């Protein structure tokens, strides 16, 4: 028989994306607007996070968009995890430029919510995501 274990979700400062104590992480500082159920952050990433020369790795972009979706959902639910993430990369994201990441809660019914996120540079869209987020009560 398979034993069920509850996922213990506890916030700490070691998160790869937003953890301020993670020396190898992105240390993105997300702010939220509880009324709009939205999130926002700006980051400037070094070549430490590149894939191809002078281009930020796609997995790093995915992590930022995922985090924006989670922060948007956390405006209404403290405990949540990504169940599904669909990405669209529109342009290569260069190293060393100011990146804006934003997320918004788009649907909040039952236990699986939906959120979307965008990554922009100087108001131009570089990547976007749609997420399904599982909510724990």
Structure keywords:
six-stranded antiparallel β-sheet; 1 helix; mainly beta; Thiol Ester Dehydrase, Chain A; single chain
**What is the CA-CA span between the terminal residues?**
26 Å
Spatial arrangement of strands, main beta sheet: 1-2-4-5-6-3
Percent range of helical residues: 10-25%
Mean pLDDT across all amino acids: 94
Q: Shape, please?
A: globular
The CATH superfamily is identified as Hotdog Thioesterase
Strand and helix layout:
Elements: E1 31-33, E2 38-44, H1 58-73, E3 80-89, E4 98-107, E5 112-121, E6 124-135
Antiparallel strand pairs: 1-2, 2-4, 3-6, 4-5, 5-6
Describe the structure.
This protein has 137 residues and is mainly β. It has one helix and six strands; from the N terminus they run ββαββββ. The chain has a single domain, classed as Roll (Thiol Ester Dehydrase, Chain A). The chain has a six-stranded antiparallel beta sheet, with helices on one face. A hairpin with a 4-residue loop joins strand 4 and strand 5. The two termini are 26 Å apart. The model has no long low-confidence stretch (mean pLDDT 94).
């Amino acid at each position: 028989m398979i034993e069920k274990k509850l996922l213990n979700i506890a916030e700490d400062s070691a998160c790869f994306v937003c953890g301020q104590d993670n020396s190898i992480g992105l240390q993105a500082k997300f702010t939220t607007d509880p009324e709009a159920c939205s999130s926002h952050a700006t980051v400037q990433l070094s070549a430490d996070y590149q894939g191809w020369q002078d281009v930020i790795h796609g997995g790093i972009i995915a992590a930022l968009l995922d985090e924006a979706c989670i922060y948007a959902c956390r405006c209404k639910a403290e405990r949540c995890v990504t169940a599904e993430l669909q990405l669209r990369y529109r342009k290569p994201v260069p190293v060393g430029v100011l990146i804006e990441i934003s997320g918004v809660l788009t649907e909040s019914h039952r236990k699986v919510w939906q959120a979307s996120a965008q990554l922009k540079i100087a108001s131009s869209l570089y990547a976007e995501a749609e997420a399904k987020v599982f909510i724990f009560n």
